[in-house]
Amino acid sequence: MKTLITGGLGQIGSHIAEMMLKRGDEVLVIDNLATGRREHLPDHPRLQVVLDTIADRNLVNQLFEEFKPDAVVHAAASYKDPDDWYSDTITNCVGGANVVDAAKRFSTQRFIYFQTSLCYGLKPQEQPITLKHPRQPEGSSYAISKTTNELYLELSGIDYVTFRLANVVGPRNVAGPLPIFYQRLKDGKKCFVTNSRRDFVFVKDLAQTVLKACDGVGRGAYHFSSGSDVPISELYDAVVKAMDLPDYPQPDIRELGPDDVASILLDPSRTFKDFGPISFTPIQETVTAAISYYKKHGTLGEYTHLRFKEQKS
Ligand SMILES: NC(=O)c1ccc[n+]([C@@H]2O[C@H](COP(=O)([O-])OP(=O)(O)OC[C@H]3O[C@@H](n4cnc5c(N)ncnc54)[C@H](O)[C@@H]3O)[C@@H](O)[C@H]2O)c1
After folding, report:
1. Does residue 311 fall inside a structural domain?
2. Which residues line the pocket of ligand 1, CB cutoff 6 A?
3. Low-confidence ranges of the chain (pLDDT < 50)
4. pTM summary value
5. pLDDT given at position 146
6. d(C-alpha 175, C-alpha 162), whole Å
């Protein structure tokens, strides 16, 4: 099988690429290193890596024409700065439309997309959120641009799966609370936690499900979620434990920022029905794997798509 992975040097894309190479597939990656790293995918005889942007339409078309992928895993996304609408739209809207359009014109058989749960808005109307919940991404540039890409995919008529994701974490995770907690604790700085709750899922559990989707399982929208959430403080405690710190560094407890969401719990029932039961890796194991990655490679900047940054100074 030949798979083109956009954003293949990032957290999710690189784990999928690794699993595909291991089972004998050919992989072509395009990544502009915005948040990815070349060293996430060592050289391999069945791997090609193009360091460039999906916003270049001619390049995207050329890659499809020459490589002729059976499947596309579209994992590239821009989210680093909530006020940088230019970068978000260039990658997520223009780049995303380029990839969808090329897949359509070159008759790619399967298209896998990853959507943010922020597509359901900052104040979701139900818990857990079902796939029937309306998309209302207007509270965030990231969600607006990611939803635009998802809508182009729906419009295209391509055979696709879109995974709307819980918080996917593990090695190579550069965004959100996990790398922030690690870096601050390493620097001896105080962390704060809000009283929000999240469902943290291990990136390798997602990657295994994506391989099934590339092979033909599923059609349309799915939630990739364990179905139960934990307080952010539990993630913090898991980081402290994985770092093996001598004393417990007490975090500050703070109110939620105006663009943060108290709880995002996605209903995974359709996923379990079509993909079968998923045995989710426990949070401590997931966090320990991430911390051993940070110890070797660092955290790469600790991004968050939230305007009111989680930890300052
Ligand atoms: N991790 C999560 O919890 C989560 C949640 C919801 C959605 N997603 C989506 O999943 C996908 C993968 O996320 P991730 O966690 O691996 O993030 P990531 O930042 O590790 O990976 C994104 C990759 O895209 C690359 N990229 C960015 N702009 C590009 C461009 N113009 N051209 C080519 N490559 C570009 C980056 O360099 C990076 O390697 C993204 O589409 C993201 O929106 C992730």
Report:
1. no
2. 6-7, 9-13, 30-36, 53-55, 75-78, 91, 95, 114, 116, 146, 165, 167-168, 174
3. 308-313
4. 0.95
5. 98
6. 21
Residues 123, 213, single domain; the answer is yes
Of 5, 9, 11, 144, which is best to mutate to test ligand 1, by the most ligand atoms within 8 angstroms of its C-beta?
11
Q: Whose CA is nearest to atom 12 of ligand 1?
A: 75
The residue segments making up the domain with residue 184 are 170-198+227-297
The residue whose CA is least distant from atom 26 of ligand 1 is 76
Ligand 1 atom nearest to 53, measured from its CA: 32
The per-residue pLDDT for 230 is: 94
158 is a domain residue: yes
Q: Give the Å distance between the CA of 10 and the centre of ligand 1.
A: 6
The CA-atom distances, in angstroms, between 142 and each of 34, 78, 118, 139, 197 are 15, 7, 8, 9, 20
- Count of domains observed in the chain: 2
CA 7: distance to chain centroid? 10
Q: Can you tell me which atom of ligand 1 is nearest the CA of 37?
A: 39
- Whether residues 161 and 242 share a domain: the answer is no
What's the pLDDT score for residue 224? Answer: 98
Backbone Cα Rg of the chain: 19
Q: Does one domain contain both 211 and 110?
A: yes
Indicate whether 292 and 243 sit together in one domain: yes
Angle at 148 between CA 147 and CA 149, to 5 degrees: 90
> Residue 66 sits in a domain of what CATH number?
3.40.50.720
At 313 the pLDDT is 42
Determine the residue of 5, 12, 153 to mutate for testing ligand 1's pocket, defined as the one with the most ligand atoms within 8 A of the Cβ atom: 12
Closest alpha carbon to 13 in 204, 160, 153, 219? 204
